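[retry 2/3] ANTAR domain-containing protein: previous attempt timed out, resubmitting with same input.
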Amino acid sequence: MIDNDGQAERLAVLQQEVEQLRRAVHSHALIDQAIGVVMTVGGLRPEQGWEVLRHISQHTNVKLREVARCLVRWPSTRQLPEVVRRALPRAVEHVRRLDGGPGGERGGEEATGPRQEHPG
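[retry 2/3] ANTAR domain-containing protein: success.
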């Protein structure tokens, strides 16, 4: 049987876990909203929006959660920190290149039609 000290310790651990889960849910919602902003601005798919957020975070040394917070506030405040503002178009272009072209489709076939074979 667990004594009072053991119960108090278990309760403290559970409270800490609940708080961590609350932060994770909030952070996840914020990131999803930022992906939506990036999708709208860049004309991208959800997975591309996620890659843009990651790229910005990795290349600016700004935590992903902070990048997401800035992007979610941007439409209403019309302000974006300089480091994120400069990184956003580069990240969008990077993700488009990875996916095969300006339209972002792999291989570019959906955007430009099937590729033609050219002799020689």
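[retry 2/3] ANTAR domain-containing protein: Confidence is low (pLDDT under 50) at residues 103-120.
[retry 2/3] clearing retry counter.
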